[in-house]
């Protein structure tokens, strides 16, 4: 699916709504109120329907998702492999997941991510830039960026949430409506492949941590710091905390373990 989507996006003239449709011959796009549904692809009538009632960045993700449905339906090999391996609800679920993978690959092409990493490093700032440029939610950007990061980095989106509100329904970015008692917590996190540590959603950020200062001052902070694991363990890491829209986009660069002999005793 990712290859299909990547090949598709490479042939497009751009990533705006009109350009995104340019690779689908004879398929039209319609915006209309659709109640609870985000969108649909109707292969019989060659039309993609998008719910006009949801916010624009969600419409955009839905468009890329429905384009992925069309790409999948046009690929007999992949389609028959899926029908051989799954059936019923499980098949439907796998197809939906694959179309989200396709959507992420369409909106956040490898070239865009590679360009941002080469300019700003695997950092909190890159995460913020990616979400802004691709016009996707911070958590969508987080997963796509983590997957394509080679260095040992843990990314996180941190935001204020109501104390004890973990069971409440968060929105797409994992935010909950601010109320009087607010705690800065990890809303979403993902690490580069090969990193064996993870930061669980809901992990509180201590008031004394630089991430809290970045949120309070609205200034980016880069410095030696630590990963505030829920267990209380503080793992040393180089922090980049980039405040953006009432949240902080965070990267923790973990120290690279020495590949050779153990360090000699200092004189
Ligand atoms: Zn779908």
From TrEMBL:
This is Hydrolase. The keyword Nucleotide-binding does not apply. Residues 26-145 form the IrrE N-terminal-like domain. It comes from the Bacteria. Pfam families: Peptidase_M78 (PF06114). InterPro entries: G3DSA:1.10.10.1030 (IPR044853), IrrE_HExxH (IPR010359), Rad_response_metalloprotease (IPR052345). GO terms for molecular function: hydrolase activity. Keywords: Hydrolase. The keyword Hydrolase applies.
């Amino acid at each position: 699916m990712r290859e299909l989507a990547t090949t598709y996006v490479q042939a497009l003239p751009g990533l705006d709504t009109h350009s995104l449709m340019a690779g689908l011959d004879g398929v039209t796009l319609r915006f209309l109120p659709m109640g609870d549904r985000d969108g649909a692809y109707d292969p019989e009538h060659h039309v993609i329907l998008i719910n006009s009632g949801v916010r624009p960045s969600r419409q955009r993700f839905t468009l890329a998702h429905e384009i992925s449905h069309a790409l999948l339906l046009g690929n007999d090999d992949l389609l028959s492999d899926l029908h051989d391996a799954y059936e019923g609800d499980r098949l439907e679920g796998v197809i939906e997941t694959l179309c989200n993978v396709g959507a992420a690959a369409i909106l956040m092409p490898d070239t865009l991510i590679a360009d941002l990493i080469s300019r700003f490093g695997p950092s909190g700032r890159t995460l913020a830039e990616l979400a802004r440029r691709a016009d996707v939610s911070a958590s969508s950007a987080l997963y796509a960026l983590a997957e394509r990061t080679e260095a040992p980095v843990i990314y996180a989106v941190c935001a204020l949430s109501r104390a004890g509100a973990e069971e409440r329904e968060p929105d797409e970015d994992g935010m909950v409506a601010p109320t009087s008692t607010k705690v800065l917590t990890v809303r979403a996190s993902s690490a580069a492949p090969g990193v064996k540590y993870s930061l669980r959603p809901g992990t509180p950020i201590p008031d004394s941590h630089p991430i809290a200062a970045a949120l309070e001052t609205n200034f980016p902070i880069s410095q030696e710091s630590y990963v505030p694991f829920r267990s209380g363990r503080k793992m040393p890491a180089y922090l980049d905390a980039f405040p953006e829209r009432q949240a902080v986009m965070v990267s923790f660069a973990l120290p690279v373990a020495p590949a050779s002999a153990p360090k000699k005793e200092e004189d």
